[in-house]
Amino acid sequence: MNFTQDDAQKLLKIIKARRDVRGNRFIAKPIEDTKLQLILEAAIHAPSVGYSQPWRFIVIKDQATKDKIVQNFEDENTKAKKIFHSRDLYQDLKLEGINEAPLNIAVVYEPKDEPVLGMTSMQKMGEYSVVCAVQNMWLMARSLNIGIGWVSILDEQKVLKTLDAAPKSQLIAYLCVGYVDKFYEQSELKMLGWDKEIKLHKCVEFL
Amino acid sequence: MNFTQDDAQKLLKIIKARRDVRGNRFIAKPIEDTKLQLILEAAIHAPSVGYSQPWRFIVIKDQATKDKIVQNFEDENTKAKKIFHSRDLYQDLKLEGINEAPLNIAVVYEPKDEPVLGMTSMQKMGEYSVVCAVQNMWLMARSLNIGIGWVSILDEQKVLKTLDAAPKSQLIAYLCVGYVDKFYEQSELKMLGWDKEIKLHKCVEFL
């Protein structure tokens, strides 16, 4: 299959329009099953090292589970606020949308017991495959005008326990998924002045 | 910006048509600078934890560098062949396209010295941001009808030394980038019977 210049430009637009969405932007409108299906279908078409497909997607609506994840976030963010005590902006930032988003999806890496092709030298390739799945989900969601926020201020082991995950599982991403009232034009942290954009020529070199 | 159903379907097509390309499919046609630019532009619009943008892209055409990477691969794959000694298929697989691809791109994670928002609890988020950039590159390349192969059978520390990377850098991905004579319809490892497809319902659960 050959794609056209228009297709490439459309993809670039989706990539550039993707945002990390927090609780201040999600709306209550439920996610249709057909759209959730498309997001998960995008996920499992990610590259996986040695075709190992080492992912598990736990779709969460259960309020008791969400409550535990919120508490986990609050505990971890209390520590983080101390680390960033000198930056007033951090203290007021809304950094998750666990309750505001109608769906949460925990994306978990389940290592294989046997050796995996392509992982014999770089053992993190299994995790990285699952991260590729997350990025596919994020782009697919954006093309469906659905927002995703990746919550990383969490104690991983407690999340895995809350989810009753299989032994040896690793939490790769905890995603909040929902429609939004709007997508910002740019990264929220850039707009708020948390950090500056690094231009392309600053991060590319040629050999 | 709102995307249409057609846009979402187009993205899903690109996602499903992406392949891991090895040396048996690359052709010598050079990559135009404008297309390389688009691939790198897609990369730096990936999500990055705390807007840290912790990536560096080393674009490699230099033959002496490629020679060292090939040697690195050969050494690591000799070990891997022993691990997979009972699987004949492994012994004959072409698993890289370092010389066949006109461009190689090493994608490196450069950790920050100061604390990063969103990394205070899950410290791998920096690496994961760089993986998201790799997946953006891969999809962007596919939409431009350019193939990418991710070579992971490499000694990471030796690659970093070969590239004269900054201290504390981590190699996330070593990519071979080039036009191809064809893209396979399905994952090559699936077609060859290395492993079976895991259907969506097997890797999703609901809470």
Would you kindly provide a written description of the structure presented here, covering whatever features stand out?
The structure is a homodimer of 207-residue chains. Chain A has 207 residues and is α+β, with helices and mostly antiparallel strands. Helix content of chain A is 39%, strand content 15%. Chain A has helices at 5-17, 33-44, 63-83, 88-92, 125-143, 156-162, 188-191, and strands at 55-60, 103-109, 146-151, 170-179, 204-206. Chain A has a four-stranded antiparallel β-sheet, with helices on both faces. The first copy, chain A, is globular. The first copy, chain A, starts with a helix and ends with a strand. At the A-B interface, helix 1, helix 2, strand 1, helix 3 and helix 5 of A face helix 1, helix 2, strand 1, helix 3 and helix 5 of B. Strand 1 (55-60) of chain A pairs parallel with strand 5 of chain B.
